[in-house]
Amino acid sequence: MATSIHETVLIGICDGVIDQKKNTSYCTNKTGDRPDLLPVITLQYPTCALCQRGLSQVVQIYCPLAASRYHRTINVFACTNPQCYGKSESWIVLRSQCLDDGIKSRQNNNTTACTESAMSRTDWCDEADDWGMDDEEQVAESSVQMPNDSTGEGNYVSSRLQDLCIDGDHQSALQPTDVPVFQPFYISVMEETDLDGFHDTDHENELLRAYEEREGVIVREIQSCESGEAQEQYEKATAKHGDEVFTSFMKKISFCPEQVLRYSWAGSPLFITEPPSSVSQTVPCCAHCGSPRVFEFQLMPALVSLLSSADTNSDISLEFGTVLVYTCRNSCWESGSTVPVEEFLVVQPDPDQKLFK
């Protein structure tokens, strides 16, 4: 998401394994597992366009937009067939929406606050605080008035709906038994500007040193004590592989290499390899309303190591550098629709995947 003044980037980080005995809902941000459907949605399970195998869920993101009455969930699926790795055709992204009325009709007006911890609930909004926010603060924050933009431009992800959860009507997609399931993890959220000083940097520095030695590029972080804000300064150098885009990518995520997702509605994606000369022409307009699509979020290399099978007797994996997700700027939705809208994504391979293993 973006504002007219600056662009806010939210970071998603793994926040522990989801207990298989505990039901999740459409408002749960998670990796792996089976998709949780909004009450009115019916999902015909997606298959790979290349090999026709059933696709496994990679992430589920609950991300309602301000100036919208809709609950809104995005599910990303991918093929675990090694022959399909790195190909956008073997992935699919689906957007589902539902009005409160649709939920209330299923729940007989019985909605309760999510009992998940604040760390595992959605905070895809400009007002999101750090991970320590308690329930009272969450409720107070949900009343913040967000900018209203009927065109969809400049929209923030709404916090108004972030704490809603449905009690007693857990609805998961019926997944074919032969489709692999990735082990589920909660995703926690924080602003990128809050990363400085939050993490233990020993592991990050170890990764950076290994990268410097291998690629012949020097990366240095300099902290500004006067402003209290993290400042980054890098010596100019050329990586051995000559990939300046990848070098820039590494610098950008150096504060938090373990991030699994970056969210910036209508913001700027972080490319890991050279993008097409005209990205706007590569991303098609919405097939339903004809509006342009905007960048919404991307999956990061650190997610790869988390994507192992939920079945201990099965061995599956997935490889990618980053996956860029673009959605309809107007987040169009036909009243009464029960079928998710397919959006657009781009899969970029990682030129140095072993760095994140």
From TrEMBL:
<dbReference type="GO" id="GO:0006915">
    <property type="term" value="P:apoptotic process"/>
</dbReference>
<protein>
    <submittedName>
        <fullName>Programmed cell death protein 2-like</fullName>
    </submittedName>
</protein>
<dbReference type="InterPro" id="IPR007320">
    <property type="entry name" value="PDCD2_C"/>
</dbReference>
<feature type="domain" description="Programmed cell death protein 2 C-terminal">
    <location>
        <begin position="243"/>
        <end position="348"/>
    </location>
</feature>
<dbReference type="GO" id="GO:0005737">
    <property type="term" value="C:cytoplasm"/>
</dbReference>
<dbReference type="Pfam" id="PF04194">
    <property type="entry name" value="PDCD2_C"/>
</dbReference>
<dbReference type="InterPro" id="IPR052815">
    <property type="entry name" value="PDCD2-like_regulator"/>
</dbReference>
